[in-house]
Amino acid sequence: MAAITRERREIFGHPVGLFILFFTEMWERFSYYGMRSILTLYIAASATAVDPGLGWSSKDAIWLYGWYTMLVYVASIPGGWIADKFLGQKKTVMWGGILLCLGHGILAIPQDWAFFTGLLLIVLGVGGLKPNISTMVGGLYEEGDIRRDSGFTIFYIGINIGAFLASISVGLVAYYYGWHYGFGLAGIGMLLGQAVYIWGQKFLKGVGEFSGGSLVSAEEKEAANRPLTKIEKDRVIVLFISFLIVIVFWGAFEQAGGLMNLYTDAKIDRSIGLSWLEEIPAGVFQSLNAAYIIIFGTAIGAFWVWWKKKGRESSSLFKMAIGTIIMGLGYVFMMFASQEASQETFGKAAMFWIFLAYLFHTIGELSTSPVALSFITKLAPLKYASIMMGVYFAATGFGNKLAGSIGESAQLEPYSGTMLYNKEQIVPFMSKDSIEIKNEQNKVVTVYDYPINQDKNFTLKSTVFLENDQVKFKQYQADEILNPIFELDDEAVNKLKTTLQENQVTAENPYHAALTFEKDPDAAQQVENKGDGKNYQVSFVLSEEQNEQEYNTFLFLTIFTVAFGFLVILFLKKLKKLTHGAEDKEVEKLEQEGYEIADTEIKE
User: What is the C-alpha separation between 168 and 163, in angstroms, rounded?
Assistant: First the structure.
């Protein structure tokens, strides 16, 4: 939505309203990213743990994550439409915030119905708030105002301050106190954001008003009643092409909350050896992206301003293409991590690979995401301002779904079977350990016992190989044959046998598997049968197969994103012509300030 020409109070060279939206979005993102940092970990956590999760497989957890994050952003389309046709952006943001407060509050209730109800309300709330608050940022600036890009960068830094604080605090609270306390802390963040937005309404007068309101400009009223011009139609075409870049970018980037989150939990050595924190919770690593944005956000924005003043190619599409390439190169480090983890049996990779991957992802994001937001406010026709922003977030949602599908492909379907041994037979294969349980007063206490006595999971490391055309399981670094302990159905045995034959796996060159035994969650709820050792299932994947699958996924993400970025650069000149000089006014402002623009095509 175009800005209404009026004097606005300013702080640090920007309208005060920018900082109201900054803090509103900061706390909203605190709630969203806090919940996101533990979402897949909670879904995949054992349903029989002292702090139970849903007990889904990693593959299914990423599947749900992909659908949820897609719907969060696709809901921006009806959110933008409601704002344009009925409420205006300002009121739609208000109602979206209310739904988010309710959704995060319900998530704090430790019940399955509350989990899915909370997710639904968050989907609806983000759909109302996200596209409209971003459009309101654009509405603070007049057309051609060179501060617009830096304003969006500042706004973007606010998003990531919230994400940084959330990933650390929610991750640690969930680690120490439980999943639902983590969800509850995220909800407190949303309440703070809503309070800031309500208090700051006086600084947002004339921004985001409904089209029938008294504070809408004459230009917007006229635009709402006329058909699109040829130039506007061409610009809409460019916008839709830019949305393809958005889908590809987020399809790779959003592995962070799914595949990379679970990979960090399982395959990264997170040990730090502190007395109060032996290892860094996997969810805390989600703060790296936000921390890098806070550190480098202003520098990257300043670089592109300097680059433009030098007269070099600096169109929004060019920045987005370069950002996609840089982000894709971050997966090269994940390829190295995968190689390192696979060099040792049941090995793990060093933490610094994750730090490097997120660094490249962040530099790419800073060149893409805030630029894309600003690009829409420059090219979108006035009458479809919020809808176009909604379509942008829907493209982000489709990117998230693509991310979920790619992440799913990196997770093998586990082999599963049934434990045959009784408790007395299986106990010799395990050792006592410190186990957290809930006592009769529902308090968490630590006991020293065998896991099976407390209905807890236990794992047996095994080599897997073919011998006389039979699949053999042998205890890792021991001579015990594990086949009598459990049985697989015929389909699983045949599939496993085929895999081992194709890879010529023998006793001298075996594959490996961590056999995870877990009691059926419903049976575990029967207190009178606690510790009976019955109703245990076994599941596993072949480590070598899983490592190869993850490596190939990281390789695909690298090639896919880098190739797509170069493809956009190849067609850049043709795409720029369709914008009909939408970004030229910024160039004119630079020339008025005494900077010589060397790129003649920008002037045309």
Answer: 9
**pLDDT value of position 14:** 78
User: In this structure, are strands 444-449 and 433-438 parallel, antiparallel, or unpaired?
Assistant: antiparallel
Structure tokens at 531: 């510790």
**Cα–Cα separations (whole angstroms), residue 437 to 7, 48, 312:** 62, 10, 63
pLDDT band at 54; cut points 50, 70, 90: confident
Question: Closest Cα to residue 27, out of 169, 173, 147?
Answer: 169
Q: Under 8 Å CB-to-CB from 124, ≥6 apart: which residues? A: 75, 96, 99, 103
Dist CA 173 CA 167 (whole Å): 10
- Pairwise CA distance, residues 204 & 88, whole Å: 13
Q: What is the CA radius of gyration of the chain?
A: 27
Between CA 58 and CA 407 the distance in angstroms is 10
Distance CA 317, CA 367 (A): 10
**Residue for token digits 């877990």?**
518
For 250-294, what is each residue's pLDDT tens digit? 999 999 888 998 899 999 999 887 777 788 888 889 889 888 988
SS (H, E, C) 239-297: HHHHHHHHHHHHHHHCCCCCHHHHHHHHHECCECCCCCCCECCHHHHHHHHHHHHHHHH
Q: What is the DSSP letter of 204?
A: G
- Which is it for the CA torsion 202, 205, 208, 211, positive or negative? positive
